[in-house]
Design goal:
Belongs to the flagella basal body rod proteins family. This is Flagellar hook-basal body complex protein. Residues 95-156 form the Flagellar hook protein FlgE/F/G-like D1 domain. It is found in: Bacterial flagellum basal body. The protein is mainly β. It folds into four domains: 2-80 and 630-665, no CATH class; 85-156 and 559-626, no CATH class; 166-275 and 532-542; 293-510, no CATH class. The protein contains four helices and 48 strands. The strands form 17 sheets. Strands 7, 8, 11, 12, 40, 41, 42, 43 and 46 form a nine-stranded antiparallel β-sheet that branches. Strands 17-18-16-38 form a four-stranded mixed β-sheet. A hairpin with a 2-residue loop joins strand 26 and strand 27 (340-347). Helix 1 (2-27) packs antiparallel against helix 4 (632-665). The radius of gyration is 42 Å and the shape is elongated.
Length: 668
């Protein structure tokens, strides 16, 4: 009987604790971000009256007999379910639509997590706070480094790119962009670019700084091999002009849309800074002019060369780059020199019009091309190569690791490799046509150009039914086996007439090294001018690197991605920070801390910090708050059953007491 009485006591205690949970839920029915709880019961210790027995052949087994001693509160679970949103009309109210918690920090450095996004602004400190006055954590400025969480200061711009730090303008149909690496000083930073032939030989760029304007002068006689080369020399000159120190704006970068590939021979300062001859230096539809030749141009396999006038020659090679994600087809190539046969391959992207190449009126005098000038030290066509050991261009076995003739992916048809070079060095050239002849052109270490022209005249003939391209020269031949619908890259577009054809310069079109030109391969459209005539670039309304205090802010706004912007009369609308969210592997394991806060526990897992809308976290809803997820109907039903349970357990005590009274009365 005493056991039953204590079971009733345990049951009443458990139901009283459940009533406490229900009362707390009902009390927080209008608390923003509140998550309801539920009490879970379990039975407790059992006393075994008789143990179970095993059955025999004559008698079955018996079950154990146990008597429990009441119930207990097993635990209180937090129901982390999404609740409805309430529109408040206040821009500083923010709700999380999905997973995640806001992070706040009190004055002692303790971090809490909350669903209640009632945010505010501390006018004294400038920090973004919650309704309890604790600091809201996130990223300052535009930084998204997860290790850089900090209090968000609304009246300070830090690590933010200034307005108009990049300035673009269209000149002669091309879009030029000048970009500062760092934030510029407040006000304007003007950069003026021009060209001149008055700079000393060897000085590619000169810069002066006066009254906030940087004047950059390019030597019209200097060559820049790439945009990187140009920008490096410009920034070096600016540093010198600034007393050996980099300017606050950092490195300046000049870029040109649709002109990301300079000819390998380079552009002169005059061509960059002034209206040029009307030809576009750059890449169009994946086909680019690889450069005005300063390297070798192989005439044909086994043909001899004779010296020409370098001033009358200006040649270029063609390389086609396949579009990203496309697969390449290759042409099988067979080269027969005397009694030997060699094979290789060339990419289909280097071919344009199906047909064959026929060599006529040519005679072969030797299988080896011999050169008597061992002092050539550089080749511009395909980079740098040490030719100091060059004695001959010999055709040897393809399998020989020291082979000389090579047809390789990314090289123009007719490429050659030179014996005797240092490891890793190579020279690549192209089969080129000028008045029906082919040539190689070289420049020695002193800059003197020498051109070697073949005495064999060739004809360029297209045959759409032939499955191969063959170059013949006496007993020697070069055969290229083509896949179906193969293209042979031999067509250029004349920028003057807009008609396709074989474009070249020869003795009838004299050129000099400072005025060499290059064509782009296009369909039938004319190339565009890439001129720049003393163009000013103004980086306006910039801000100095570091932090800038905003004297007056208004219109605080928070985006769905957590980006916090403010409006300032001087700076306009600027980003001052970004809210971040914390997600947990087990959000039900968070420890309630009061004031709508939770703290991480041993069973919640560590917080994963991310920006709203990423890594499975929810997006933010501005001018809204998440309501309590308490269901009053459920709570009232639970309250009724809890009351009845409490009453029933109290009856256990009453009945047990009556039974004990009857037992005592037996003695009377």
């Amino acid at each position: 009987m005493s056991r039953a009485m204590y079971s009733g006591v345990a049951g009443m205690k458990a139901h009283q604790e459940k009533m406490d949970v229900i009362g707390n839920n009902i009390a927080n029915v209008n608390t923003y971000g509140y998550k309801s709880q539920r009490a879970v019961f379990s039975d407790v210790y059992y006393q075994t009256l008789t143990a179970a027995t095993k059955g025999t052949a004559n008698k079955g087994g018996t079950n154990p007999s146990t008597v429990g001693v009441g119930s207990t509160l097993l635990g209180v679970q937090t129901m982390q379910t999404q609740s409805a949103m309430q529109n408040t009309g206040y821009s500083m109210d923010v709700a999380i639509s999905g997973e995640g918690y806001f992070q706040v920090m009190d004055g002692s450095g303790n971090i809490f997590y909350t669903k209640a996004g009632m945010l505010g602004y501390d006018a004294n400190t400038g920090y973004l706070t919650d309704i309890n006055g604790n600091f809201v954590l996130g990223y300052q400025g535009t930084s998204k480094d997860g290790s850089g969480l900090q209090k968000i200061k609304l009246d300070q711009v830090g690590a933010v790119q200034p307005k108009n730090a990049t300035y673009s303008q269209e000149i002669n149909g091309n879009n030029f962009t000048l970009t500062a690496a760092n934030a510029t000083k407040e006000g304007n930073l003007s950069v003026n670019i021009s060209s001149s032939d008055s700079l000393p030989i060897g000085q590619a760029v000169e810069a002066t700084i006066a009254n906030g304007t940087i004047t950059v002068t390019l030597n019209s006689r200097s060559k820049f091999t790439s945009l990187d080369d140009l920008n490096t020399k410009i920034n070096s000159a600016i540093t010198v002009a600034n007393g050996g120190k980099a300017i606050d704006a950092g490195d300046l970068t000049l870029s040109v849309d649709n002109a990301d590939a300079f000819p390998a021979g380079g552009l002169t300062g005059d061509q960059i800074a002034k209206v040029n001859d009307g030809y576009d230096y750059g890449t169009i539809s994946g086909i680019s002019a690889s450069g005005i030749f300063g390297g070798f141009k192989l005439d044909s396999v086994g043909a001899k060369f004779q010296k020409g006038n370098p001033a009358d020659q200006a040649k270029f090679s063609i390389v086609r780059t396949p579009a990203a994600g496309t697969s390449e087809e290759y042409f099988t190539m067979t080269c027969k020199i005397g009694s030997k046969t060699y094979t290789g391959k060339v990419a289909k992207s280097q071919m344009q019009s199906p047909g064959k190449l026929v060599l006529s009126n040519g005679t072969s005098t030797t299988d080896t091309i011999t050169m008597d000038y061992p002092n050539y030290s550089s080749v511009i066509n395909s980079g740098k190569a040490d030719l100091s050991q060059l004695k001959s261009l010999a055709v040897t076995d393809y399998k020989d690791p020291d082979f000389a003739t090579e047809f390789k992916d990314g090289k123009v048809l007719g490429g050659i490799k030179v014996n005797g070079l240092a490891d890793g060095s190579s020279v690549t050239s192209a089969v080129l046509v000028s008045n029906g002849k082919m040539e190689i052109k070289a420049k020695d270490k002193d800059g003197t150009e020498t051109t070697y022209t073949s005495d064999a005249v060739i004809d360029l003939d297209h045959d759409f039914t032939n499955g191969s391209i063959t170059v013949k020269n006496g007993s020697n031949s070069l055969t290229v086996s083509l896949p179906s619908k193969a293209d042979f890259l031999s067509s250029l577009v004349d920028a003057t007439t807009g008609t396709p054809g074989i474009s070249y310069f020869d003795g009838t079109d004299p050129t000099t090294p400072d005025t060499q030109r290059a064509y782009n391969v296009t369909d039938t459209t004319k190339s565009k001018n890439l001129g720049l005539s003393s163009a000013p670039f103004v980086l306006a309304d910039g801000t100095e690197g570091g932090t800038v205090t905003l004297n007056e802010i208004s219109d605080i706004a928070i985006g769905s991605d957590g980006v916090v912007t403010v409006h300032n009369s001087d700076k306009g609308t600027v980003q001052v920070g970004q809210l971040c969210l914390a997600t947990f592997a087990n959000p039900a394991g968070l420890q309630a801390a009061g004031s709508n806060y939770y703290t991480a526990s041993l069973n919640s897992g560590d917080p994963h910090v991310t920006t709203p809308g990423s890594d499975s976290s929810g997006e933010l809803k501005t001018s809204e708050l998440e309501m309590s997820n308490v269901d009053l109907a459920t709570e009232f039903a639970d309250m009724i059953t809890t009351e009845r349970g409490f009453q029933a357990n109290s009856r256990i005590i009453t009945v047990s007491d009556s039974m004990m009274e009857e037992l005592i009365n037996l003695k009377r």
